[in-house]
UniProtKB/TrEMBL annotation:
Pfam families: DUF1501. It comes from the Bacteria. It comes from Amycolatopsis nalaikhensis. InterPro entries: DUF1501, TAT_signal. This is DUF1501 domain-containing protein. PROSITE patterns: TAT. Residues 1-20 form the signal peptide. Keywords: Signal.
Length: 402
């Protein structure tokens, strides 16, 4: 993460009213592998319980060059050199195609595991990164509130912080409630002793006759660490460099779901989408990274019972303006596509495609309220009444799950 990204993330956290310190004060707990795997032994995840994985794309991803209306003359006229030609995109039908960096997503689409939600946004949109992301994370477009939408889900369903885990570099405000907050699991190296010393250390985890409660607990913690290495590998020792930060985060999430950790919601993120200049190459590289991380993750989930209950949400704080700027980039816009992926999803298009000629001062008009998406996920994945999480909002999306 660059210094600029760090500063911007701090500014965002401050602007939302949910600073890292406030989130910790609300009950956030940093956990380690041993604690999570012990929880899996003591209170394993029900194989039929839904799991939600939220992927935040920080910076405002350009939706029109992600799900591309390449055959629309208005798109070609508005974007000149920035536009993709119809033969360059991965055809989805209805005149739309995926960015050429998303070949894995196209395979998921063909397999019915990718839903494209079109024109998602909120009324009276704000072009500020910090205000718009605060709106998406708190699900409160009209007024500023100090709790995130999944934080309110935590408040409504119990007091165990392990029910939600952030694998982000920082705890995002969406996971901070009034009375509790998600646990935080930094992705970092997990390296144990090797050779003769490593064997001796592993033997410390063996049960001994007549040992007391705390001796047994300490021994089990050693065993848990070795199980963590076997289950999760060694994040940070090459995987992060080889596949990217998001892939490292998702590798951890997949391992925790497989291990039966009783977490129902996870948060991961990828930044860099503020493409005001030279967008095409930058965005395609980022979307290729997103594709390369999420595609094997979803394929892995589909291979085992607990994974089949998992659903992935991918969103950004806003789309971009329809017309390219003079720097072959795009400026802050409004509505854009949201992806929902997983074995339970009813693949295909959901919601109406926004018009490129009927605009609101140069911006796309929303056709799907993002709170409808959240309400559907809260009820159909997390099994909770959406009214407890989104008070005053009654909409939802029908037909998103098979």
């Amino acid at each position: 993460m660059t210094i600029v990204q760090q500063v911007n993330r701090r500014r965002f956290l401050t602007a939302t009213g949910v600073t890292a310190a406030a989130a910790l004060a609300a009950g956030a707990t940093q956990v380690d592998w041993g604690q999570l795997l012990s929880a899996a032994q003591e209170n394993p995840l029900d194989p039929d319980a839904g799991v939600l994985v939220v992927v935040t794309l920080y910076g405002g991803n350009d939706g029109l060059n992600t799900v591309v209306p390449a055959g629309d003359p208005a798109y070609q006229d508005a974007r000149s050199e920035l536009a993709y030609k119809p033969e360059e995109v991965l055809d989805l039908g209805e005149g739309l195609g995926l960015n050429p960096g998303m070949k894995g997503f196209k395979g998921l689409w063909d397999g019915g595991q990718l839903a494209v939600l079109r024109g998602v946004g909120y009324p009276k949109p704000d072009h500020s990164h910090f205000r718009s992301m605060a709106i998406w994370q708190t699900a409160s477009p009209e007024t500023s509130v100090p709790t995130g939408w999944l934080g309110r889900w935590l408040d409504a369903t119990g007091d165990d912080p392990l029910r939600a885990v952030s694998v982000d570099p920082v705890l995002p405000p969406l996971l901070a409630g009034e009375r509790t907050a998600a646990a935080s699991l930094p992705v970092g190296g997990l390296k144990l002793p090797e050779g003769a010393l490593g064997k001796a250390f592993e033997d410390l985890g063996a049960a001994q006759p007549g040992e007391g409660f705390w001796q047994a607990r300490a021994a089990r913690s050693v065993t848990d660490l070795h199980r963590a290495v076997q289950t999760l590998g060694k994040p940070g020792e090459g995987g992060k460099k080889a596949k990217g930060e998001l892939a490292a985060q998702l590798d951890v999430v997949a391992g925790l779901i497989e291990a039966g950790v009783p977490t129902r919601a996870y948060s991961v993120s990828l930044g860099g989408f503020d493409t005001h200049a030279d967008e095409r190459g930058t965005q395609q590289r980022l979307l290729t990274e997103l594709d390369g991380a999420l595609t094997p993750f979803v394929q892995r989930l589909a291979k085992y019972d607990r994974g089949k209950q998992a659903t992935v949400l991918v969103y950004s704080e806003f789309g971009r303006r329809v017309t390219a700027n003079a720097s072959q980039g795009t400026d802050h816009g409004t509505a854009g596509p949201v992806f929902v992926l997983g074995p339970r999803v009813k693949g295909g298009f959901h919601g109406a495609e926004p018009s490129l000629t009927d605009l609101d001062d140069g911006d796309l008009k929303l056709s799907t309220d993002f709170r409808d998406v959240y309400a559907t996920l809260v009820e159909d994945v997390l099994g909770t009444d959406a009214g407890k999480v989104l008070p005053g909002h009654s909409g939802r999306m029908d037909g998103l799950f098979a």
